[in-house]
Inverse folding.
């Protein structure tokens, strides 16, 4: 019978060859096996994919009013595909740093064709959420006691809840539908512990003659000036017109002074003219496009008045703002 | 092609393949991640895994059927697994070779002599398998209980015949055989009727302690790879890693004393193969009884199986070094027996076998005297999602560490002694060690467990969705708030970190809001305006009360007059102008300063015990919210609330 | 014939055959025991279910006998249903599930009365029962409970065996369609091999469930940390009544614990209501028992649930109860 030994080279070769071939076969088998993924990997892929099934809002929150029912599945979007849902308006949110958006439609149980859509933009931070809230604020809107920043129009509710900006848009101004809309928003706020929060910068603005709800935060390119980022603004009632006062924090007093000078140069470069000012003025006003512009720095803030009807108004408002800033710096 | 070189190539191939399987055990679909790599293949080829779980569970789980291939090839060819496939063996062989490289011929031959102590591994195998078979014994002893069951009678008769034959064979004496049977039956009935079989015999799978493939897996997974990972900047920690490393490196270093020390003296898998090769058709042996006695064949003999003299077939690892070493082509691998004679028996004595088997059976109830599986269960042992109830979990767990390596958050840790002696190195969740809790959407651990000690869950089952909606989600335990340590409960300090991080929806942690007057918070008003108040008393740090959690109101005023503090200096407080008082606190009256506390409360119906809250709790030492195993899904006996579904 | 080559070949063939057989055996065993699916969620070793102990063809009946002497009233009540022979046949192995929940004296009415237990045992044995055993899984230490309530003494004197629950006596049980009784330890060993089951319970006020009577009595068959079921007491009583179909229930309203149940503790808690109820319908028995507590079936959700599921009737009058009195 045949056997392996030190001199039986032919058999040895054959055996060795068979063994190596089986190693190859094993390697090949393993290679093909690795294409049939472990369920854990498949799930991880499903979770990570942008088209992941968004969880139904109704399933995740206990706050769906009794009058409403789900009217379509929940959808969710990332910055990459936000265009798919809101088209060009995505720009506004992208510029403000949107993290994601979820939306879902709900309808009245009792009435056909009465529905609303809930948009929940996760903006990452409160200032960013406030920024998209304020820059879109509808003039006819009426303030709502929902969160610190909230208002309603005839058919919609808009508010900031923590770092999220939420729009609830109803298909009509139907009373029952609007009641359900408000109810939905209230329940959401009640269920979200982080839905409150204010921006401290707005506390600096003088309260007298402030037009309620006129605060905005412009996250970039305020007044067409590309160095103005995170500019907090508010409107003041002055002699039958509204005047805008603004404020932006800088990293240091020096930076503030430099930014203030830069804006001044920007105004002058774009056709602005220096005006004579009363002694009480903080800085020389600039007349541009029929309005008076006054910019100054105080501590770490650049502040000013935008498009005032007259020097007097500009100087007076700037003076009050400056006082508040001085108080704030204490 | 030199057959020894082919063996070396094969060993390197399997060793690298093994390392590869360990390396890729991280969730992901890149080529170096889990994908579909059959990372459990070595464990599945390991017949000790299959046999051990077969004894404890009476089943061979899914892929473990691969062991049949190893068994069949071993019965046919000999212990090829030890000499050609086993990565632990390859490591020992390499280190042993390096250790004796510069030794003289005579010393090397002496190192590779058969030693009587090599029989030890057979006793270890006997002990481990008897421990695993304890449940079967209890089942057997329970037969008298089932007086009416005909199958019981058939089994009993069969068992009796088998016992008589077995004793007859051992003793060679019918009288003693019958006598032995009578004693056996008496003991059996005595134990079965008078006592509780469960008390004296239960099964426990401890083969993983010494089985080389699980050792290799947990050592590479938890010790070697975590060192590699650490070099790459990641910081995976393993609680019992030190003891695992100790066993591993001790086994490796012992090769410098005696080559293949572990394989020769300890390895129970090798012992199992040693039993299986009794009838191998092909074997190593000498062509002629006498040769020129150079003993070159023993120069590198891996198994220490005495190929020069009477070869011990049960010890031969099929390294084939003797074949290539023999200058006269005396050594062969073929169908004939060695001309110099063979020692077929592994050398196990009857007495030794019974001592080992008895020790094995007795060790389980002894280990369970602590009552770990009964009323004295340790709720600190939180098992991974899908883990079976403790007793049947221990029937399957190999301590191989696959779940610990694959866990993306490093929260699955090898137990030290918290799960009892028999729970050493089994997976438990440690929410301080990991980078987070158990991730909601992860099902990796059960889907890599080779024996289903952790069941492979579908995500729907883990989360209690779809067809599993009525059963609810898999719970690992429940979070408990330690009100003596929790910041808002114990220290009037606002904190809602656990609630914010609870991943369950709706959240299993809800907040109970409460306004509490702060320490020295009732103070006399010195002066006031509609938005500011100056107070008497010890000064505060500027901004201390301006975090958004502190409020002020006149002592006599109702809650509606409570105002959020916007700013504070050492003695004055300002509130937001938009919320100014209609009537500010009068000078000389008293105002109270309150903190709004949101105290976390657990809803046991919703909590799944994932431990994210515990991980995130800012009380960094002993956490103020901790998950323990009460209410875990795997046994209803630890329920906290009557469960739905 | 005996050449070395021949021997070698023969040896090789023998070994190959043995090796082949070994492989075949291993392969067969492997394939037979192969488990592709793996374990299921609750893979318990042995699950049991409680057999139906009711006597077929007897139907639902109820007898109510007033009187202060338990021995007389229970005899009369059983006679009213046709005598114990209707229910216990020669050779029957009878289990009496008593209420021995507390280690308190019989006089306080928190447990089944030993006189009643003893009498029922005697009646069963007289009817030809092969064996009678008495069991319960009490709340306090089992041995003390059976001793201090006097049940152990009475039972042994009457010729029954008291089965104290130990760890091995419990087996996991699942009620089909049940919500709470799933893979839950049940005091099963005493029931193994039994052919008849009689529940004997006093009428008691119960702080959680409103009343503890015959249906609540089955709670004593539960093991484990059963007190979690107190959070959903009516459902657990209802599920127990679904699971346990007794031969008879005997509800002892001789002294009713009107308040501070289920333990009582003072004779002030008891009221002499002098009634013995025997029934094949545990729902009807409890519905009548409720009246002794000054309640109605509607006050007790577990009765409503059980009646709603068709386990019995809450309208006990519809069974035309046989009433009698022994003075």
């Amino acid at each position: 019978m045949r056997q392996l030994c030190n001199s039986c080279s032919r058999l040895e070769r054959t055996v060795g060859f068979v063994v190596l071939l089986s190693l190859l076969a094993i390697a090949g088998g393993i290679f093909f096996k690795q294409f049939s993924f472990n369920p854990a990997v498949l799930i991880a892929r499903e979770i990570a994919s942008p088209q992941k099934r968004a969880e139904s809002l109704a399933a995740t929150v206990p706050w769906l009013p009794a009058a409403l029912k789900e009217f379509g599945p929940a959808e969710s979007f990332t910055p990459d595909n936000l265009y798919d849902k809101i088209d060009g308006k995505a720009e506004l949110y992208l510029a403000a740093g949107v993290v994601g958006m979820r939306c879902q439609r709900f309808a009245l149980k009792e009435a056909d064709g009465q529905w609303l859509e809930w948009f929940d933009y996760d903006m990452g931070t409160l200032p960013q959420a406030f920024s998209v809230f304020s820059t879109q604020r509808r003039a006819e809107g009426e303030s709502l006691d929902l969160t610190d920043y909230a208002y309603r129009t005839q058919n919609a509710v808009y508010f900031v809840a923590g770092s999220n900006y939420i729009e609830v848009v109803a298909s009509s101004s139907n009373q029952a539908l609007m009641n359900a809309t408000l109810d939905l928003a209230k329940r959401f706020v009640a269920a979200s512990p982080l839905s409150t929060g204010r921006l401290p910068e707005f506390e600096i603005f003088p309260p007298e003659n402030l037009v309620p709800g006129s605060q905005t935060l412009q996250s970039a390119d305020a007044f067409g000036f590309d160095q103005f980022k995170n500019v907090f603004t508010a409107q003041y009632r002055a002699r039958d017109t509204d005047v805008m006062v603004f404020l932006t924090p800088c990293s240091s007093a020096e930076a503030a002074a430099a930014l203030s000078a830069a804006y001044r140069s920007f105004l002058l470069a774009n056709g602005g003219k220096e005006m004579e000012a009363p002694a009480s003025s903080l800085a020389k006003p600039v007349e541009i496009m029929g309005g008076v512009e006054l910019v100054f720095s105080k501590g770490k803030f650049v502040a000013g008045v935008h498009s005032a009807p007259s020097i007097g108004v500009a100087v007076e408002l700037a003076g009050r703002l400056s006082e508040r800033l001085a108080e704030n710096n204490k | 092609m030199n057959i020894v070189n082919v063996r070396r190539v094969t060993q390197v191939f399997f060793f690298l393949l093994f390392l590869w399987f360990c390396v890729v055990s991280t969730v992901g679909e890149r080529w170096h991640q889990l994908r579909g790599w059959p990372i459990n293949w070595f464990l599945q080829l390991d017949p000790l895994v299959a046999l051990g779980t077969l004894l404890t569970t009476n089943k061979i789980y899914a892929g473990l059927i691969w062991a049949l291939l190893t068994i069949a090839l071993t019965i046919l060819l000999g212990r090829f697994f030890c000499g050609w496939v086993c990565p632990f063996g390859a490591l020992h062989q390499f280190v042993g070779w390096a250790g004796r490289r510069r030794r003289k011929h005579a010393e090397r031959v002496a190192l590779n002599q058969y030693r009587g102590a090599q029989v030890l591994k057979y006793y270890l195998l006997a002990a481990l398998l008897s421990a695993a078979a304890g449940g079967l014994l209890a089942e057997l002893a329970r037969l008298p209980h089932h007086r009416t069951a005909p199958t019981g009678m058939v089994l009993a008769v069969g068992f009796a015949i088998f016992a008589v034959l077995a004793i007859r064979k051992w003793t060679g004496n019918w009288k003693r055989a019958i006598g032995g049977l009578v004693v056996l039956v008496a003991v059996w009935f005595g134990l079965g009727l008078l006592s509780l079989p469960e008390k004296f015999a239960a099964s426990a799978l401890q083969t993983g302690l010494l089985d080389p493939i699980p050792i290799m897996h947990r050592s590479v997974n938890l010790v070697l790879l975590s060192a590699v990972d650490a070099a790459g900047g990641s910081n995976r920690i393993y609680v019992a890693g030190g003891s695992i490393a100790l066993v591993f490196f001790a086994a490796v270093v012992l090769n410098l004393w005696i080559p293949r020390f572990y394989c020769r003296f300890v390895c129970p898998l090798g012992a199992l193969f040693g039993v299986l090769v009794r009838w191998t058709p092909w074997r190593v042996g000498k062509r002629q009884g006498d040769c020129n006695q150079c003993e070159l064949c023993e120069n590198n003999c891996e198994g220490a199986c005495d190929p020069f003299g009477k070869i011990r077939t049960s010890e031969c690892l099929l390294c084939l070094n003797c074949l290539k070493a023999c200058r006269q082509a005396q050594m062969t691998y073929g169908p004939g027996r060695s001309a110099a004679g063979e020692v077929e028996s592994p050398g196990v004595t009857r007495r030794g076998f019974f001592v080992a088997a008895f020790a094995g059976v007795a060790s389980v109830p002894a280990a369970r005297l602590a009552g770990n599986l009964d009323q004295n269960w340790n709720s600190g042992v939180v098992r991974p999602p899908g883990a079976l109830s403790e007793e049947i979990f221990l029937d399957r767990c190999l301590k191989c560490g696959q779940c610990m390596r694959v866990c993306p958050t490093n929260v699955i840790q090898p137990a030290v002694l918290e799960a009892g002696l028999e729970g050493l190195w089994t997976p438990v969740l440690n929410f301080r060690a990991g980078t987070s809790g158990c991730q909601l959407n992860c099902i990796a651990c059960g889907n890599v467990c080779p024996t289903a000690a952790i069941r492979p869950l579908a995500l729907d089952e883990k989360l209690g969705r779809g067809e599993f909606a009525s059963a609810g989600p898999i719970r690992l335990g429940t979070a408990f708030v330690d009100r003596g340590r929790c910041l808002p409960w114990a220290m009037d300090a606002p904190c809602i970190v656990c609630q914010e991080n609870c991943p369950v929806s709706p959240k299993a942690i809800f907040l109970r809001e409460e306004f509490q007057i702060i320490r020295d918070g009732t103070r006399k008003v010195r002066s006031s305006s509609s938005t500011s108040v100056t107070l008497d008393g010890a000064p505060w740090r500027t901004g201390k009360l301006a975090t958004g959690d502190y409020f002020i109101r006149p002592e006599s005023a109702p809650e509606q007059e409570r105002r959020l503090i916007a700013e504070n200096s050492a003695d004055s407080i300002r509130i937001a102008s938009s919320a100014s008082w209609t009537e500010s606190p009068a000078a000389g009256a008293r105002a109270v300063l309150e903190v709004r506390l949101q105290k976390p409360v657990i809803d046991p119906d919703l909590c799944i015990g994932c431990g994210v809250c515990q991980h995130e709790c800012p009380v960094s030492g002993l956490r103020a919210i901790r998950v323990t195993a009460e209410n875990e899904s795997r046994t209803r006996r630890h329920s906290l609330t009557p469960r739905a579904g | 014939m005996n050449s070395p080559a021949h021997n070698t070949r023969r040896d090789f063939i023998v070994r190959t055959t043995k090796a082949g057989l070994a492989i075949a055996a291993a392969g067969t065993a492997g394939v037979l025991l192969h488990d592709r699916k793996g374990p299921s969620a609750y893979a318990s070793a042995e699950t049991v279910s409680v057999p139906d102990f009711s006597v077929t063809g007897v139907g639902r009946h109820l007898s109510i006998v007033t009187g202060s002497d338990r021995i007389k009233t229970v005899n009369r009540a059983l006679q009213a249903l046709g005598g114990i022979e209707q229910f216990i046949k020669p050779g029957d192995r009878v289990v009496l599930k008593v209420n021995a929940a507390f280690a308190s004296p019989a006089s306080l009415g928190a447990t089944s009365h030993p006189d009643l237990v003893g009498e029922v045992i005697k009646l069963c044995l007289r009817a030809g029962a092969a064996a009678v055993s008495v069991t319960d899984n009490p709340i306090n230490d089992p041995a003390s409970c059976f001793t201090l309530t006097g049940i152990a003494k009475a039972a042994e004197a009457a010729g029954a065996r008291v089965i104290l629950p130990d760890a091995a006596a419990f087996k996991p049980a699942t009620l089909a369609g049940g919500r709470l009784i799933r893979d839950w330890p049940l005091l099963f060993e005493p029931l193994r091999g039994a052919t008849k089951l009689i529940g004997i319970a006093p009428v008691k006020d119960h702080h959680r469930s409103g009343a503890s009577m015959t249906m609540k009595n089955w709670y004593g068959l539960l093991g484990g940390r059963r007190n979690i079921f107190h959070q959903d007491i009516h459902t657990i009583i209802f599920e127990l009544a679904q699971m346990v179909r007794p031969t008879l229930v005997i509800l002892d309203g001789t002294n009713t614990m009107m308040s501070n149940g289920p333990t009582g503790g003072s004779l002030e808690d008891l009221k002499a209501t002098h009634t013995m109820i025997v029934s094949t319908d545990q729902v009807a028995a409890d519905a009548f028992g409720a009246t002794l507590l000054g309640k109605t079936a509607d006050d007790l959700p577990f009765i409503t649930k059980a009646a709603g599921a068709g386990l019995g009737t809450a309208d006990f009058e519809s069974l035309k109860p046989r009433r009698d009195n022994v003075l």
